[in-house]
Every structure is written in structure tokens, then in C-alpha cells.
Write a structure and sequence with these properties.
This protein has a single domain (16-199), classed as P-loop containing nucleotide triphosphate hydrolases (Rossmann fold), CATH 3.40.50. The longest helix is centred in the middle third of the chain and has 20 residues, at 80-99. The relative contact order is 0.20. It is 43% helix and 13% strand. Strands 2-3-1-4-5 form a 5-stranded parallel beta sheet, with helices on both faces. It is α/β, with parallel strands linked by helices. It contains 8 helices and 5 strands. The chain starts with 17 loop residues before the first helix and ends with a helix.
């Protein structure tokens, strides 16, 4: 009996290359992976990056936890297996954007070294730009507009990162932004200044 894999014949080698598409867009594609606690500012920074990069003429796609779980990953829960599958799919989607010359900005808690390594392995270490949005848990609780930390402390949300589940801070992120005592613009600009030289194509 033949496995499903025997019937799959990728045609990537017959399609236009990533370089062709980057030349069309005048940009170098990267996957900017924002990791940090819930409420750390990942989504806000992602939205700010999208707006500012767009103004500078870059084509960007933002992938965010809530949006992805409302669509392509709406069949996944929050078990360890489902969290891993959530990140695996996101990484594969990011790779598709990468190969199309588009800059993908991903905003996901992705709390463990293992789960971020999975994403980096799929995307490719040269194209995976890990940005640690470093915000103390107390500050995240203070900003908590969704009330998730309060629910977690009451036991209404199980395995909530930062309260009842661990967050393993990146040991060697490509970039770290400390958002406490900074405006949103200041945080976004810090990340922008780091990213732009990497995605700018020399004319």
C-alpha cells in the first residue's frame, strides 16, 4: 500500500525563485518572530512595524495568534500537542510568504526554546529573526486589557504562560526590546532600526 507521500510531487523547482520576487518587490524577505509574554506588546509592535514598513515601501504580512486561531488553526486547542502544531503551521505559512519575497511579522507567545527552535528549523535559521519583547510579568498584568491574568490566577485558564506555565526567555535573540517605561513608538522604532538594514535591497 502506497503512503500519501508517494503521491506528492512538489513543483517548487519549476516556479519563479524567491530572488525573482524579492527583485520585483525591492526587498529582502525575512520572518520577524516576536516572542514574549501575553500583554508584553507583541501585537502592538507588530501593527506598528507593519504601518511604518509599509510607509517605507516594504510589503509586509502580519501573522498574529488570535487571527491565526480564528482561521486556519481554528481546530486546535491549547494542549502541548496543539500548541506545537499551531506553531508548526504558522512557521510553514511564514515560509510561504518568505519564498514569495514578503516580510512576515509573526506575533506569538511561543514560550519555550523547543517550540521556537521548531519554527526556526522550518523557516531556516538565516531567515528567522527572533525578537524578544521583554516586559516584566507585573507590567503585562497591569496592561492586561483582556483580563487573562486575573482569570489565570482564579484558575479559570489552565497552563497560562507567566502564571501557571513557564516562559523560557530567549538566550540569544537576534534583538531584544525592553518595553517598560517606553512609548509604543519608541519600542517600534528600536525594532525598525534593527530590521530595516536586513530587508533593504541595495539599488
Amino acid at each position: 500500500m502506497k503512503s500519501h507521500g508517494e503521491h506528492i510531487h512538489p513543483v517548487f523547482d519549476q516556479l519563479l525563485s524567491r530572488t525573482d520576487k524579492e527583485s520585483l518587490l525591492h526587498q529582502k524577505a525575512k520572518v520577524i518572530w516576536l516572542t514574549g509574554l501575553s500583554g508584553s506588546g507583541k501585537t502592538t509592535i507588530a501593527k506598528g512595524l507593519e504601518a511604518k514598513l509599509h510607509q517605507k515601501g516594504f510589503l509586509v504580512m502580519v501573522l498574529d495568534g488570535d487571527n491565526v486561531r480564528a482561521g486556519i488553526n481554528n481546530n486546535l486547542g491549547f494542549s502541548d500537542e496543539d500548541r506545537t502544531e499551531n506553531i508548526r503551521r504558522i512557521a510553514e505559512i511564514s515560509k510561504l510568504f518568505l519564498n514569495c519575497g514578503v516580510i512576515a511579522v509573526c506575533s506569538f507567545v511561543s514560550p519555550t526554546h523547543k517550540i521556537r527552535s521548531l519554527a526556526a528549523d522550518i523557516i531556516g535559521n538565516d531567515d528567522f529573526v527572533e525578537v524578544y519583547v521583554n516586559t516584566p510579568v507585573e507590567e503585562c498584568e497591569r496592561r492586561d486589557v483582556k483580563g487573562l491574568y486575573a482569570k489565570a490566577k482564579k484558575g479559570e485558564i489552565k497552563d497560562f504562560t507567566g502564571i501557571t506555565a513557564p516562559f523560557e526567555a530567549p538566550k540569544n535573540p537576534a534583538f531584544e526590546v525592553k518595553t517598560e517605561n517606553k512609548t509604543i513608538d519608541e519600542s517600534v522604532n528600536e525594532v525598525m532600526n534593527f530590521i530595516v538594514p536586513q530587508i533593504k535591497m541595495k539599488r
